[in-house]
Write a structure and sequence with these properties.
Elements lengths: L1 E3 L5 H11 L2 E5 L3 E5 L2 H10 L5 E10 L3 H9 L12 E9 L6 H20 L4 E2 L6 E8 L2 E7 L21 H11 L6 E4 L6 H11 L20 H9 L11 E5 L2 H13 L6 E5 L12 E5 L9 H18 L3 E7 L2 H7 L5 E7 L2 E10 L4 H6 L7 H36 L5 H17 L14 H13 L14
Parallel strand pairs: 5-6, 5-7, 9-10, 9-12, 10-11, 12-13
Antiparallel strand pairs: 1-3, 1-4, 2-3, 4-8, 7-8, 13-15, 14-15
């Protein structure tokens, strides 16, 4: 099988799959391949925090033309996968010079399936884009093609607890990956001083309690498959033996009152009001912690505020971390180097991550009282050997990707140069050269310059939600916003 994820989260996803019992786990670019049975496929969809979707390949083949794609797809017995009266849809991902348009590949696959049904049964299955019974995924890289069944359906980042969201909310899969990357599993309090719609606090509470993110989902694509085992999935869904008590607390703050209301509603929908407190508070009013804690936050990047105010915001973040958060780790996600520079603190870990199309960095700041020299003399470690190794490995991986991208751009530019090159006659070239020599002799210093840039799931979900929210009198005071 294949679990897809965001670039930068492959290591975390591989660790999750190994913990679930997957075999032959192999990391790729934005994917992790693995082997397992039907139960593992169900569990992967239900329990993985950093997977976007889980695919089950059913055919690998070489395709050098559109006709070959059609023929290879038509070789499959589609009645085994698409039952009578069932609908289907096809998604295509193409990286190939032969197939420049992924939509064209989609049409070819659909045509092959429909034509086979017409020839064998005289009827054709219907296409449904919004709610199909069977989802197919075609991936073509060069001439290598893979056809898979999509076992997830709607992207797994859509947990089901989000009632509303602020503008450009943090993706749930990315949020969970960031938290897991810090190594935090609930050993201390968790703080997000700029929580927005509450994604980081909610994902943190789910991790601390070891609650599977799939408990909120209404359905998965595999539930519509002909071989779906409802009893097996109910057993996986109702197994809460791995859940644990969370002895600390999660805090989310935001200066925007609307964001606070949205985050509060989302926490309640997730049934986590016992573990998560949301309050209105400006980060500049942050007064520190009584006990060790971790801060993980995703500040604004500058799309909606001026550059001056943006830099002042990051300067304030550094000031608050330095003077109010003197014990613990702070992790900040951003994508502008000048923003990180304004924080003004020594970074111990830098992890490259993509937030949508933005190439960001997730940086760790280890906070301590006193001076760095004194901290080290007392045995303090800013960066462990394992963190150094992981950072070096990630830098090599990203440099390799950047090099390959640059080489591809270079080749494309060279091809364009050749296509646009105009040949001139030898006489014209000599005349031009003579003219240039005469001009250059007047100014010998001048040179040309060139530039290169059991119960129904709804009932079980309501029961879980009511259980966590019932008789909630838990209120932690925290700084000025902990009411």
């Amino acid at each position: 099988m294949v679990a897809k994820t965001f670039m930068g989260l492959e290591d975390i996803l591989a660790e999750e799959l190994t913990a679930l019992g997957a075999k032959d786990v192999v990391k790729g670019c934005r994917v992790v391949t693995f082997r397992g049975d039907k139960a593992l496929m169900y569990r992967a969809n239900f329990a993985l925090r950093t997977a976007i979707r889980v695919l089950k390949p059913i055919k690998h083949f070489i395709a050098k033309s559109a006709d070959e794609v059609y023929d290879k797809i038509k070789e499959i017995d589609w009645q085994e996968y698409i039952g009578e009266g069932k609908t289907f849809t096809v998604d295509s991902v193409v990286y190939s010079e032969t197939f420049s348009n992924s939509r064209f590949v989609t049409y070819k696959v659909k045509d092959a399936i429909v034509d086979q049904f017409r020839e064998r049964t005289g009827q054709r299955p219907n296409i449904s884009v919004s709610d199909p019974d069977v989802r197919l995924n075609v991936h073509i890289h060069g001439e290598e093609a893979t056809l898979s069944l999509d076992s997830s359906g709607e992207s797994l980042h859509r947990r089901g607890y989000r009632q509303e969201a602020v503008e450009a909310p943090l993706n749930e899969v990315l949020a969970a990956g960031m938290i897991l990357m810090t190594g935090w599993r609930g050993e201390t309090d968790f703080i997000d001083p700029m929580c927005g719609s509450g994604t980081l606090p909610i994902e943190a509470a789910l991790i601390a309690c070891n609650i599977a993110p799939g408990v909120f989902r209404k359905e998965y694509a595999f539930e519509k498959w002909a071989d779906f085992d409802a009893d097996l999935f109910d057993e996986i869904y109702n197994d809460d033996s791995q859940e644990k008590e969370f002895e600390h607390h999660v805090y989310g703050y935001d200066i925007d009152f609307k964001a606070v209301n949205i985050a509060t509603a989302n926490v309640k929908a997730a049934g986590l009001t016992k573990h998560v407190t949301i309050a209105q508070q400006d980060f500049k009013d942050f007064q520190g912690t009584k006990e060790p804690a971790i801060i993980v936050t995703n500040p604004p990047y500058g799309e909606r505020i001026s550059t001056h105010n943006l830099l002042e915001t990051y300067k304030m973040i550094g000031e608050r971390l330095k003077h109010a958060f003197k014990e613990g780790d702070a992790w900040v996600l951003s994508y502008k180097e000048e923003c990180f520079q304004q924080i003004g603190l020594k970074t111990s870990v830098k992890v490259p991550l993509y937030n949508g199309s933005l190439e960001c960095e997730f940086r760790k700041y280890q906070m301590f009282s006193g001076k760095l020299k004194e901290f080290r003399e007392e045995g303090g470690i800013v960066k462990t050997e394992e963190e150094k190794r992981q950072m070096a490995e990630k830098r090599r991986s990203w440099k390799k990707r950047e090099y390959e991208k640059q080489q591809e751009e270079l080749i494309n530019n060279e091809e364009a140069d050749i296509l646009n090159f105009n040949f001139t006659s030898l006489e014209k070239e000599r005349a031009k050269r003579k003219k240039d020599e005469g001009r250059w002799s007047k100014d010998k210093g001048q040179r040309d310059r060139f530039e290169g840039r059991g119960r129904t799931r709804a009932e079980r979900q309501n029961e879980r939600k009511n259980f966590f929210n019932r008789n909630n009198t838990h209120g932690h005071g925290y700084g000025k916003g902990g009411e």
